[in-house]
Design brief:
mainly alpha, two-stranded antiparallel sheet
């Protein structure tokens, strides 16, 4: 049903696998093309043929050549589905085009940084993130993303510095607080992380908080308490989700100690 609705929005004929501009009810909805390509690939099962999905994301750009988001969505598609040099070059080209179209848009900047990081181009990610912070010095997501780049570069202390700068502008931003706690655990500061978690209060995702508390226990070498907490959390995690994967990884670490 979802594929049929997206086909109507984009004017995509599911039988002929071609587009009809006159039948598209919302041709400027660039996110619809990306979602249609994803669902189409899932529907094809184990097939690795990207001909039709590529045609779909190309059509989004063709119809919306001035939309930075159309280029970013296609960049993500290339990044996720094309391996090696080809995928990297096509992704970077689309990210650069998006930045040309909307160099000051924070959503575009953040997406561009994420794409550069996914392609392991950390120098470009840093350049984009620094530029984004200069343009949006009060945006908490910019500080979070810049900290993410620093962490990927192996500098956890600098990551915490960027989070703290963000908190100076957004004192009770809970996402920033959570990330600081996580980075404090990474840098071997479980006591500081506990203090940070206390500031989160009860208005933040409880699963993420409890996972962070488990990591704090592990950092304190209290593996029994950590495993008990993780075993209680495990039944509440979504099957096949990232949080369940993290719980299993953390439990494996606890059991080895």
């Amino acid at each position: 049903r979802a594929m049929e609705e997206l086909a109507d929005v984009t004017g995509f004929d599911l039988t002929t696998q071609t587009f009809d501009d006159e039948k598209a009810t919302a041709p400027s909805e660039v996110n619809a093309y990306a979602l249609l390509a994803m669902i189409y690939m899932l529907d094809q099962g184990s097939s690795n043929d990207l001909t039709v999905p590529t045609r779909i994301v190309d059509k989004a750009v063709e119809r919306n050549p001035e939309s930075s988001m159309a280029y970013l969505r296609r960049a993500s598609f290339f990044q996720e589905n094309l391996e090696g040099k080809e995928g990297k070059e096509k992704s970077l080209a689309d990210v650069q085009k998006a930045m040309e179209l909307s160099p000051d848009d924070p959503v575009v900047i953040l997406a561009a940084v994420s794409t550069a990081m996914a392609l392991a181009d950390l120098d470009e990610a840093q350049r984009l993130a620094d530029d984004g912070l200069a343009k949006h010095p009060k945006n908490p997501e910019m500080y979070a993303k810049r900290a993410e780049v620093a962490r990927a570069q192996g500098d956890t202390d600098q990551a915490i510095e960027f989070i703290n700068r963000g908190l100076e502008e957004n004192q009770m931003n809970r996402e920033l607080l959570y990330r600081r706690g996580s980075y404090e655990v990474d840098s071997g500061q479980p006591a500081a992380a506990r203090t940070t978690v206390e500031r989160l209060g009860n208005r933040f995702d409880p699963m993420r908080v409890e996972l962070l508390n488990a990591r704090i226990l592990m950092a304190e070498n209290n593996f029994l308490a950590a495993s008990n907490k993780l075993e209680r959390l495990r039944p509440t995690a979504a099957p096949g989700g990232r949080q369940l994967s993290l719980i299993n990884d953390y439990l494996a670490t606890c059991y080895r100690r």
